[in-house]
């Protein structure tokens, strides 16, 4: 699926304008268009710990502050710490018994297998239970900040009440800069007024901070004492724990591991899910996966003759039909309209409105369109790619048979399609076909940037069977969809004449 | 699923994300918490060219838009792990930020991530909420520049603003210059220079600094052995001189301490003493050892110099200590402010999509005198 070394030689144009390889795009079956990671709505589906694979429900995750309660990260090298156990002899405290036998007790400590940091070196006492007893460092300022938050919450509610009273006067939409704002109007209002009286002296107003003249002076021994750099933390180690940002290595404390998420992706236009992973963190499967790879014919470059400026070179392309239905492929020029079309029973071509498609495909679990939020339209991305070669398009179309998994193991049968144009189709097997095209790099020398790879663009029209049963169309609807393709063919070969 | 009394507060509210996108580091976390969840570099791997790029190194608006989409995607799904759709976001920004940046940021948040509402707060102003005071002179020394805006009784005195490119970046450049003989060009990455600065350098005293350039300076502090792929020594003089660039006055006689004094001069006479006695230093650079004490000595020295003797009659300077580390104090201000439910101060999605703009203090439309002015 993904190409070796991930070189995107063949790129598909998404409906938002991004160019991506087929492995990275989705095909929304409901609005029949190509979507990519940029133009779908990402949502957090489930949380899990990457180390112990625990996946608590979303409400619990929030209480746990999005961190795993059992796993820790090394404060030195940020790898996962492992819990080690050891045994220690404990003298029995019961002195009543004559012989106080030493009892062995199991104890646990944390250790990093990568950098050899251990909780013992840091002076953290060993624990008698493996998990759950490791203490978190408390922020020294929690009390003060909570008091401040509560104070500002009260101020906020007072302001809300006042707003409520003046509800019918206020017409402005943006009140953001008032009172706490920085507009000149605000400053003007305050001019000439008495200093703000502390009228709202609630009993729970925290003591305002006291400024002091005394500041911590630079200690004199910094000029004489030599520094061992290995004992001082790096900036990354400090920022790992923003609350304390300790300076000495031995003051570092392990941090609880953060949960990571599984994302589901939703089409922005019809709000149908295009990708939804399995809830279980051990599974790598998907509940819904509308990858374009399963719906859109895949194109690969088989071979290309050396490219010379102004001369035509032969290009072999391999097409593969991933669907269960036969499809007809027509190659068109880049400037054809991209609207999907269908052929009616009478044989008349008609364009399909995107709205119509959507209407017909409303499944019952989605909200009715009246309740649905307005679609936020994002500007499309500009396709900034220079096409610097012309491709001679074939006049005829060709047909790809449906995919048949069993056929892979059959002997190559000579069921060659006699309708094929032998000039176009050079090879055929199962649901795959190789076609031959001619490519001519532009002669326009001024525009050519040296060593820029040659890119050709073409549009592919392919037949698609819409199998989603809708109220209007009981029978599967036959559609002709189009996608723009950009092929990077490599550099020019300089003529040595 | 409520387990503790504390938990009830977190559960009942919708979570609010507080973001402080600085030019070097981005602080992210949830409103109502005492510290950010993380501090990360403001940079992202460009998906097309696969190189690490700083967000502020953008070429144009489209480029910035793509960078911000990638960067915020990482913040939402790898850092704060929350679905961005319809949530409330608090953004901290300097009032001196380019309009291009804030407009593009709002566009990305509303158009791409479809956030519910956005509250944009000016850094210097919200910082007062970490102290519970009304009057404060806030000096923010970050990466790109040092900025200063005094706040008096809850109103920023905008005309007294100060900004100079004297911050981390200038310090890094000076260290790189000093280390030229020891580190090759490819070796002296910003990351390494920054670590050298944080781990070994300090702000020296004024007394020593004056002698540094003379013929008989004090004995420099000991050299430090530093280990990377190879071992090298950082000379003591480099450690001592690293921050000198912040105090050397340039051709216009400007430096970090003069910013404070110049700003106080621009303020009304009756506010000056109060401002001088309520100074707060924020930003990562002020965490350097000896920064505050050097600043104080410089300020007192300048007060008696010819330049300011006549103009200023201040005797003392007093400094506040915020309940946080200086590099995330502004974030904490946003986290306290963001926990308060103030729907009227937010830009909602509906409003943004209708008007397609973010209110800005420089914009005349937002500065109109209101006929229905709601003073308290």
From TrEMBL, chain A:
This is Dynactin subunit 4. It comes from the Eukaryota. InterPro entries: DCTN4. The keyword Coiled coil applies. Residues 195-214 are annotated as: Disordered. One of its GO terms (cellular component) is centrosome. Belongs to the dynactin subunit 4 family. PANTHER family: DYNACTIN P62 SUBUNIT, DYNACTIN SUBUNIT 4. Pfam families: Dynactin_p62 (PF05502). Subunit of dynactin, a multiprotein complex part of a tripartite complex with dynein and a adapter, such as BICDL1, BICD2 or HOOK3. The dynactin complex is built around ACTR1A/ACTB filament and consists of an actin-related filament composed of a shoulder domain, a pointed end and a barbed end. Its length is defined by its flexible shoulder domain. The soulder is composed of 2 DCTN1 subunits, 4 DCTN2 and 2 DCTN3. The 4 DCNT2 (via N-terminus) bind the ACTR1A filament and act as molecular rulers to determine the length. The pointed end is important for binding dynein-dynactin cargo adapters. It is found in: Cytoplasm, Cell cortex; Cytoplasm, Cytoskeleton, Microtubule organizing center, Centrosome; Cytoplasm, Cytoskeleton, Stress fiber; Cytoplasm, Myofibril. Residues 196-210 have a biased composition (Polar residues). Its main location: cytoplasm. Keywords: Acetylation, Coiled coil, Cytoplasm, Cytoskeleton, Isopeptide bond, Phosphoprotein, Ubl conjugation.
From TrEMBL, chain B:
It holds the Pfam family Actin. InterPro entries: Actin (IPR004000), ATPase_NBD (IPR043129). Gene3D superfamilies: 3.30.420.40, Actin, Chain A, domain 4. SMART domains: ACTIN. Belongs to the actin family. This is Actin-related protein 10. It comes from Ceratosolen solmsi marchali. The lineage of its organism: Eukaryota, Metazoa, Ecdysozoa, Arthropoda, Hexapoda.
């Amino acid at each position: 699926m993904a190409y070796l070394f991930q070189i995107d030689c063949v790129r598909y144009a998404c409906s938002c304008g991004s160019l991506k390889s087929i492995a990275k795009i989705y095909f929304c079956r409901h609005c029949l268009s190509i979507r990519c990671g940029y133009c779908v709505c990402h949502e957090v589906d489930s949380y899990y710990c990457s180390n112990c694979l625990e996946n608590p429900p979303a409400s619990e995750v929030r209480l746990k502050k999005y961190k795993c309660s059992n796993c820790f990260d090394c404060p030195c090298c940020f790898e996962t710490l492992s819990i080690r156990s050891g045994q220690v002899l404990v003298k029995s405290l019961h002195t009543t018994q004559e012989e106080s036998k030493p009892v062995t007790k199991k104890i646990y400590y944390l250790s990093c297998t990568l950098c050899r940091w251990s909780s013992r070196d840091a002076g953290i006492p060993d624990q008698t239970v493996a998990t759950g007893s490791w203490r978190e460092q408390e922020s020294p300022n929690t009390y003060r900040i909570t008091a401040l938050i509560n104070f500002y919450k009260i101020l906020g509610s007072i302001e809300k009440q006042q707003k409520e009273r003046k509800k019918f006067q206020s017409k402005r939409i943006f009140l953001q800069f008032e009172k706490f704002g920085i507009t000149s109007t605000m400053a003007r209002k305050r001019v000439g007024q008495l200093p703000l009286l502390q009228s709202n002296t609630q009993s729970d107003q925290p003591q305002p901070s006291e400024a002091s003249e005394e500041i911590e002076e630079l200690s004199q021994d910094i000029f004489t004492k030599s520094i061992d750099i290995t004992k001082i933390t790096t900036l990354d180690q400090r920022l790992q724990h923003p609350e304390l940002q300790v300076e000495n290595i031995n003051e570092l404390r392990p941090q609880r591991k953060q949960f990571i998420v599984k994302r589901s992706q939703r089409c922005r236009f019809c709000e149908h899910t295009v990708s939804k992973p399995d809830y279980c963190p051990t599974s790598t499967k998907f509940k819904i996966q509308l990858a374009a790879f399963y719906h859109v014919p895949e194109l690969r470059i088989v071979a290309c003759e050396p490219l010379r400026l102004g001369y035509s070179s032969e290009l072999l392309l391999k097409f593969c039909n991933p669907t269960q239905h036969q499809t007809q492929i027509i190659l068109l020029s880049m400037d054809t309209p991209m609207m999907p079309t269908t052929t009616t029973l009478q044989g008349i071509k008609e364009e399909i409105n995107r709205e119509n498609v959507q209407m017909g495909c409303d499944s019952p679990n989605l909200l009715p369109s009246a309740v649905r939020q307005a679609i936020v339209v994002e500007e499309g991305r500009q396709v900034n790619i220079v096409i610097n070669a012309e491709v001679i398009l074939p006049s005829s179309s060709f047909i790809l048979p449906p995919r048949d998994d069993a056929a892979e193991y059959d002997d190559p049968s000579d069921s060659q399609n006699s309708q094929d144009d032998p000039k176009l189709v050079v090879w055929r097997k199962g649901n795959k076909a190789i076609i031959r095209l001619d490519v001519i790099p532009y002669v326009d020398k001024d525009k050519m940037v040296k060593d820029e790879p040659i890119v050709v663009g073409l549009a592919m029209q392919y037949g698609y069977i819409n199998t989603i049963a809708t109220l209007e169309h009981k029978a599967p609807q036959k559609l002709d969809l189009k996608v723009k393709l950009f092929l990077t063919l490599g550099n020019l070969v300089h003529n040595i004449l | 699923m409520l387990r503790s009394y504390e938990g009830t507060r977190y559960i009942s509210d919708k979570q609010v994300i507080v973001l402080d996108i600085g030019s070097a580091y981005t602080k992210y976390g949830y409103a109502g918490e005492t510290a950010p969840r993380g501090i990360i570099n403001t940079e992202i791997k460009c998906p097309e060219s696969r190189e690490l790029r700083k967000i502020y190194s953008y070429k144009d608006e489209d480029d910035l838009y793509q960078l911000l989409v990638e960067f915020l995607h990482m913040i939402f799904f790898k850092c704060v792990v929350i679905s961005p759709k319809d949530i409330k976001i608090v953004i901290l920004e300097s009032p001196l930020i380019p309009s291009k940046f804030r407009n593009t940021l709002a566009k990305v948040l509303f158009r791409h991530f479809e956030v519910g509402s956005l509250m944009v707060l000016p850094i210097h102003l919200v910082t007062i909420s970490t102290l519970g005071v009304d009057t404060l002179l806030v000096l923010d020394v970050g990466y790109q520049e040092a900025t200063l805006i005094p706040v008096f009784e809850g109103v920023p005195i905008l005309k007294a603003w100060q900004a100079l490119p004297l911050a981390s970046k200038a310090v890094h450049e000076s260290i790189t210059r000093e280390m030229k003989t020891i580190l090759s060009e490819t070796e002296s990455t910003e990351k390494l220079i920054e670590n050298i600065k944080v781990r070994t350098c300090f702000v020296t005293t004024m007394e020593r600094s004056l002698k540094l350039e003379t013929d008989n300076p004090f004995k420099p502090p000991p050299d430090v052995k530093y280990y990377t792929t190879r071992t090298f020594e950082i000379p003591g003089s480099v450690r001592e001189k690293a921050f000198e660039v912040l105090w050397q006055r340039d051709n216009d006689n400007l430096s970090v301490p003069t910013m404070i004094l110049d700003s106080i001069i621009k303020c009304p006479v009756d506010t000056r003493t109060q401002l001088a006695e309520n100074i707060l230093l924020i930003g990562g650079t002020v965490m350097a050892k000896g920064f505050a004490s050097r600043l104080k000595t410089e300020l007192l020295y300048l007060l008696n110099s010819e330049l300011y003797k006549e103009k200023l009659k201040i005797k003392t300077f007093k400094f506040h200590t915020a309940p946080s580390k200086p590099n995330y104090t502004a974030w904490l201000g946003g986290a306290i402010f963001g926990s308060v439910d103030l729907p009227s101060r937010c830009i909602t999605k509906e409003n943004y999509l209708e008007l397609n703009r973010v209110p800005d203090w420089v914009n005349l439309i937002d500065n109109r005198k209101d006929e229905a002015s709601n003073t308290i």
